[in-house]
Every structure is written in structure tokens, then in C-alpha cells.
């Protein structure tokens, strides 16, 4: 019924208007007029209800990421060791609008600099092939695809895509290839400059690092004194020059530097001799750093052995410095252990014992060898060796480790004390020390080959975990149990006496392949991470010293022979139970 009325209304609207209709009915009675008007209103309402409804066109469908390949391989969204002209294929669930690519795909380095690229299309425009302009080696880049990318039908990409790429090293040689012996000489000579050319002008001592200004380091200076002896022996400087520098150093230590019961602080002001606090409560004696200093001084005493007045006086002054150290006082009230620190303001508050296995074997050897303040064997056995608790005996990466923590710890454990102590054929109740140090180095090497953290660059030619600078201004003792992807050249190079083949392989890699980034005015910079594309620009005395010193021990045994020739050392080590051909 309503449909028929509405049809009539459509017909009425096509041939009459309201005025004509009113004229037509004007002669009718009022009741009829009202009825007709009511019908007319209904007809008009039905007519309005049939007006066409506007239709909103549907939004274009969004589309999604499908697959990714870098140089034909899918490896998630992070790629390392990539060549400098990679081919990146990104596929989608729909054809893309090629006009939207330029504004939605960016390629940048870590500094935010845009890298130009070309884009080609495959699979009916559903795959974009991105080829950046030639990239730089050992650099991080990011490819970003934003949701502004559109499909050919106008839809937007559902989610952002980010691809991280790190380019591989440049394997070309950065310096001319020379014989291994010539290369060792190049490295020693360049490293020597840190201690001689860059030595503090007032005290002659080694600055803590190449940015330290007046801050000099006690332990690093001991290593530097051994480097000085090496430099004279290798004729980098004359004996007279070496003697003059030693006279400057020893006079400063004897007459100017601040000491505490004969022991030196970790850091000193190289001009005034005043303590530079290492930390809040470490503002006094540091017995271990003092040991490294004495290790160097006794080595120099044995080298400058001429009967001249100058060399005789130098030896006497070194004896005074060594004899002034109250080794037994650092037992802290006659305990059977040695303590690392003492502060004039905080006393023994750090309460840090010197016990092993770590870098401080030399501390107990020197304390037992003192003719003025010696310690008895029980202090060594109880304090250092923990009555045997330093033993390990477990196997790591196929090698049995006699002493120390799991996986060996940082490699400086095998270096600092053994710049002077010759481990070859040396043993006591706890270990054979050539076996210990070789095991430590080979475990470190094999760990880096195994590379359980999958850091880029680790391998047979790039290994060595020890204490060093790390990225963002930090410093850490890297080891297999504290691996932050940072390799320090000193670790592998100073292990030359223990792992000559593996260490030379690493040394060649550092010099020839990374020399454009790692070689500076004082030899190798401190550390690097190929995984994070980070390279230190720092030189650190306590890392530079073992490089030149252990290379010399590897080449000639000079420093071992000098230190082990000290009569006090022979007597002291025998008193602790050591045996060996050098005793």
C-alpha cells in the first residue's frame, strides 16, 4: 500500500507543483481539503525518503612486509661483516607505489648522514632492490622503511622496518709488509716513545695516559723503566740518555714523591710529587702499584751496573727506595696476608687483601725478598695462595688451567708480575708457572675463536681480552666471563712468550689490517671493538708497557734475566718454596 502511494507521489511531483494542486482542490469542502492536504504531505514525505544516499569510498587496504635478504641471505634485521656495496631486497605483500619510495626509505650512518642509494623493482613491483653507494669499511648503517611507503592501490605499509648493517674491515695492508723481526722492532721502537718522548718533563715518570697532563702512574712507570732499559739495549737511545732519565726518575721518587710507610700511591702529580687520589679512600699507599714500580727499578739497577760514580749512585738510590718499603707493615697488625691500600685519612678502610690468583704475585715476591721488612712464608701460603684455594685444575676450551678463576680471567694476570719474574721452569707448591701462563693465554685465544657471544671480528687473528678502555669513556677488565666485545692489542702481544704463533698472527692483523685505525704516535692505541665499530684513541701506560717489555722477553729474555739476577729475589723466592733454573 505504502509503495503504491509513494509511486503516485513520484508521478505527481513530475507534472504538478503545490500551487496547481491547491487550485485544483479549491472548490472542495474544507473536510475534503484537509484530507487531500494530509495525503499530499504523506506523498511529499515519501518522495523525500527516496533521495540517493552519498556513498563513502572504502579506504585502500594496508599492506605488510614479507621477506628481507641482504646479499641473498636472511639473518634477521642485523647484519655484520657486510661488503661495502651490499644488495638489499625487501619484499612486500603488494606492489608498491614507486613514487613513494624516495620519501619513505632512508639509508644513514650512525652520525645521521644520509647515504644515497638506487632502487630497482622486481616481482611486479612488490620487491624493492636497494643498492647504496659505496659504504665505508667497519661502519654502522641503518636502512629504515617508514609507514609512508604506499602500495600501488594507495594503502600504507603496516609497520616500520629497520635493518642494521655493519660493514666488514678493509683487508688491504695499511703498511708495507716486512719480516716478523723487523715488525717487532717497529712496534717496540714506536711504543718506546710513549715512555721516553712523552715521559713527564719534571719527574720523567710515565703519564697515566696520553691525556693525563701532570698525572703520572706508579705501576705504569715501573713498566716504563723496563721499557727504558729495553730502549737502551736496542739502541733507540744511548746509555747516557737512559742513565740521565733514570737519574731524573729516581731523584724525584726519593726526594719529592709522597710515600706512606715507604709505599707509593697509585697516582702522583708529576710536577709536585703530591698524591692524586685514585678514588675517595684510595688516597695513600698502593702496595701492588708500588710492587710494579720496584720491579722496574730493580731491573734497571741490574742493568746500570758500571763502576762509574753516576751508575753506582743510581744503584744506591734504588736500594734506598726498595728498602724503605715497609712490606711487613702492610700485614695490618701482623695478619698472615698483605693488604693492598692504606690511607692517611681512612686507614685500612678499603680492607682489600692482596690474594690470588691475580696480577700481584710480584708483591709477595718483593715482600719476601726485602732485606729490611720481609714477610715469612706463612703470609704467602695463607694470604696469597689461600692455603691452596688458588688452585683450579678445570679444563676450559680443551686446556687445563692450574690456577685462578674460571676461564683464566683477564690476561694481565699473566703479564704484570711476569715482566720481571721468568716463569720458564719456575714452580712452587701450587703450580708450574710456564704451564699456568701458557694455559691462560691459550684459553683466552680459544675462547675468542669459539666466540660464544657471536661478536663480529673475533677469531684466530683477532683475540685478546684484558683490562683496557672501552667505549663511552669506561674501563673494564675484559675476560671470557666479562666479555664486552673489546679487544686490546696488549693482551695478545704481551702473550708472545706463551703463544708465539697465535700472538704473531694477531700482531700482524692489528698492524697490517687495522693499522689505519689502531696505529698512532706511540704504537697501538689501547683497544677496539669491530662489533661496535669503536676504536680507542687513548694510550694507557699500564697497557703500553707490557707490549714493549714482553716483546723483549720473547726476543731476548733481557728483562727476565736482569730481574732474576737480583740476589735478594733469588733468596726471597727460594724462601717461599720456588724452584727453577733461574734461582
UniProtKB/TrEMBL annotation:
A Pfam family = Glycoamylase
- Give the UniProt keywords, A-Z: Membrane, Signal, Transmembrane, Transmembrane helix
Entry keyword annotation includes Methyltransferase: no
Question: Which superkingdom?
Answer: Bacteria
Task: Give every Glycoamylase-like domain span.
Answer: 352-567
Where do the SbsA Ig-like domain residues begin and end? 81-166
Spans through the membrane: 21-40
Q: Is the keyword Hydrolase in the record?
A: no
Q: What is this protein called?
A: Glycoamylase-like domain-containing protein
- What organism does the record attribute this protein to? Mucilaginibacter frigoritolerans
Print the organism lineage: Bacteria, Pseudomonadati, Bacteroidota, Sphingobacteriia, Sphingobacteriales
